[in-house]
Design brief:
Radius of gyration: 16 Å
Strand content: 5-15%
Largest sheet: 2 strands, antiparallel
Length: 185
C-alpha cells in the first residue's frame, strides 16, 4: 500500500512539474520526423495481463516494417532526436501515466513484449508476480547491454528480495544511471 501511494504521488508530481518540458519534447518529436508523438506498445504486466505502455516515439514511422525485432546498438531506425531521448531516458516519461493507471510501478521488472514472455521458464515467470516498473534492478546493472536471461535473473532476485529499502536503493542508483546515459540505446 505504501509503494502504491508513493507511485501515485511521485507520478503526479513528475507529470505536473515537468508538463511544460514534456510538451516541448512532444513538439520536437513531432516536427523532426513524421509519425505520432507517443508510441504505444503491447507488453506483459502483472500476472501475464497484457498492457500498453506509452513512450515518446524514438524511431522512424513504421519502424516495425523496416526491421522488426529488438532495438540494437546503432539501430538505423532510431531518429537523431530519438537517440537523445533514449540516452537520457526521456522517452520513458509517458509511462508515468501507466503508473497512475496502476498498470506499472516506479520500481519493478521492466514489462516485456508478449513474444518473449511466452518463452519464459517457470523460474523466469516469477517476474510476473509483481507490477512491472519504470526502472528496476537490471537497469542499474547494465540496462540494454544485458542479455535477456541475465536481466531476468536480476528481476527474479528483485522479486524475491523486494523491500522499501531495495526500492530506494534502485531509485537512487537510477538517477545516476540516467545522467550517465550508460547502457541506453
Amino acid at each position: 500500500m505504501l509503494k502504491r501511494a508513493f507511485d501515485i504521488l511521485f507520478s503526479l508530481l513528475v507529470l505536473i512539474l515537468f508538463l511544460p518540458f514534456f510538451v516541448m519534447i512532444a513538439f520536437v518529436v513531432k516536427f523532426t520526423s513524421p509519425g505520432p508523438v507517443i508510441f504505444r506498445h503491447k507488453r506483459t504486466g502483472r500476472f501475464g495481463k497484457e498492457i500498453y505502455i506509452y513512450k515518446f516515439r524514438t524511431m522512424v514511422k513504421n519502424a516495425e516494417k523496416i526491421g522488426a525485432g529488438l532495438t540494437e546498438k546503432n539501430d538505423s531506425r532510431i531518429t537523431p532526436v530519438g537517440a537523445f531521448l533514449r540516452r537520457s531516458s526521456l522517452d520513458e516519461f509517458p509511462q508515468f501515466i501507466n503508473i497512475l493507471k496502476g498498470e506499472m510501478s516506479l520500481i519493478g521488472p521492466r514489462p516485456e513484449i508478449p513474444e518473449i514472455v511466452k518463452n519464459y521458464t517457470r523460474f523466469q515467470e516469477q517476474v510476473l508476480q509483481v507490477l512491472p516498473g519504470l526502472t528496476g534492478f537490471p537497469q542499474i546493472n547494465g540496462r540494454a547491454e544485458l542479455p535477456i536471461p541475465k536481466k531476468l535473473r536480476l528481476d527474479v532476485y528483485y522479486v524475491k528480495h523486494m523491500s522499501l529499502c531495495f526500492d530506494l536503493y534502485i531509485f537512487y542508483k537510477t538517477i545516476f544511471i540516467i545522467f550517465s546515459g550508460r547502457g541506453a540505446y
